[in-house]
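tool=predict chain=A
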Amino acid sequence: MRTHRIRIAAAAAVTAAALSLTACQGSGSGTRDEGRASSPTTIAPTATAPVTTAPTTTAPEPTAPTSADTSGNGSTSPQGSQGSQGSPASPTTPAENSAENSGRTGGKSAPATTDRPCDASAVRVVYSPVSRPLNHALLTVTNTGRTACNAYYAPVLRLDDGQAAVAVDRSTKPQAVVTLFPGESAYAAMILSAADGSGQHGRTSKKLTVWFAPRDNVGSAGGPAVLKLPAGTYTDSTTRVTYWQSSMEDALAF
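tool=predict ok
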């Protein structure tokens, strides 16, 4: 009896459910809960931060200075002229030798002058008698070397084996020292004797020894040149010699 009631209740429940379902489908609309509106799900857009690419900066390689570095006190670094790899910088063209510059004439450079005095090792000395002026002779010294020399003061002369040097005529001193470049000559005149015969201790000389004066005119520069005089060369107490001159005309003018 009890089982039969349970079956009838279950059948009734199934029938009610079926009727409810049929009613919903037949009306074409379902029930709506007006009290709770469905909120649409909002999906926040994903904000993607722009990727900023930093520009690639290539640091320039260090370059060697083209000129010497200087410190605050103006001194020059001894290594400043070399590049970073140790290779020397282009050499600066140095100024040319000042002696050569001072001797330039007509676009040509003359050999550099020095303070070297002329001496017998690099010159040729010639003794020449002259007819005018009377009782005169000419000494010519020519530079046969490769460098310039200076004919300082007057030649230092000795006749034969005399102990005293021939006197120098101080009034013949030129305005400047005569410089001889290779191949050039200087001249000095010898006044052998007094033209009026007033000289004393006259004699015939056979040999003439020629020394060259140094810059300070003390002693002699180098060794002497020894010349054989022409036969009958007469000298006396008035014999004298001039300073070296740049021309024979100047030498024989005294």
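The chain is about 15% helix and 25% strand. The first strand starts at residue 123 and ends at 129.
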